User: Fold these one by one.
Assistant:
Number 1:
Amino acid sequence: MDKLIGAALFARENARPSYSHFKVGAALEEESGRIHTGCNVENATYGLTVCAERVAVFKALSEGATKFRRIVVAAEGTRLASPCGPCRQILWEFCGNIEVILVNLRGDARRTMLADLLPDPFDDKVFR
């Protein structure tokens, strides 16, 4: 677990939060133990900004990963930063009900399951 948290904290340092000045890092662990990281990257139009969680998921998918165990989201602040709505949706569709670990720079942490953060998800079951 320390390795996964460390990877998220390290990824956070590469963040490009030119507008919010709020660095976020994420580390997504495959069932095999392989780790994929991401950081938030902001853009002047803001609509093109990409969160750390989505960067990690998209990198993992582009490298052939298909089954995931958990994700760590690391951010600064006294309050733990939870994934935004779009990130919750992407995580649900591509990772399923994985464990989500939220950490800050003070060492505070909280574990939850994605289904607790997204209790009534929209997914392919809607079409069946």
Number 2:
Amino acid sequence: MAINTDQKSLLSDINVTPFVDVMLVLLIVFMVAAPMMVQGVDVSLPQTRHAVSLDQVEDPLVVVIDGNGGLTINETPVEMENLGERLSYIFENRSSRNVFLRADTNVSYGRVALAMSEIKNAGVVQLGVVTEPVGRLEDASHGN
């Protein structure tokens, strides 16, 4: 019985089908999960012609005033009385003394002004107010 050596040769091609399947599943998972990774508390921002984008800032410190008047610093709840103290403590370990304020449109001007005062008294060098570009909320409400 003679054995043909051509039948014993190894197949050297790589089967990439399972790899492609895994990559497509990962792509879909990240596409679905990415919008959920948006930082912060959901607030209805006021509209202006020039809006600040937090995406361009490295490691931003964000103070949020939600629609009920509640305060958070980078998603950590804080009381108005402790805001300046907490910011001063945070600034001990940060080189940047810049803060972004996101305030809901339904919050009273007095509450926003009080928060701005506490933030400035904590030693903030630059305070930015985050707004929504004009038309973005209108487009979202019309489904565009």
Number 3:
Amino acid sequence: MKTSAILCFAVLLTACGPNGASNSQTTTKTTTTITTTAPGEPAPPLVPPTALTQANLDRVQTDMSPAEVQSIFGAPTSSDSKPIPIVGGTETTYSYQSGSSAVTIVFKNNQVKEKSGTFGS
């Protein structure tokens, strides 16, 4: 994995007294680091392998929001949204995959309505 420093700068602020003499100094340094994947290197998994457990699936309750589900499982491996015919609104399916374990969560209008999972060893 390649780490790149994107932004690094220092600011020097000087306050001057009435005769031009410096009477205080503040230095601020900001560094932002972004981790990227080098070409040909596999991307890190979005779902931690330890997140896909029956115990975590049991924590998911009817009417939870997508944000609440993501706080348990992390970002989905894939998601799909489509309109709900006649009734209206949106149905969104989150799929999580790690090794031989898989979890599917179905939201209707941003609320959990169905959940299922298979868990490998």
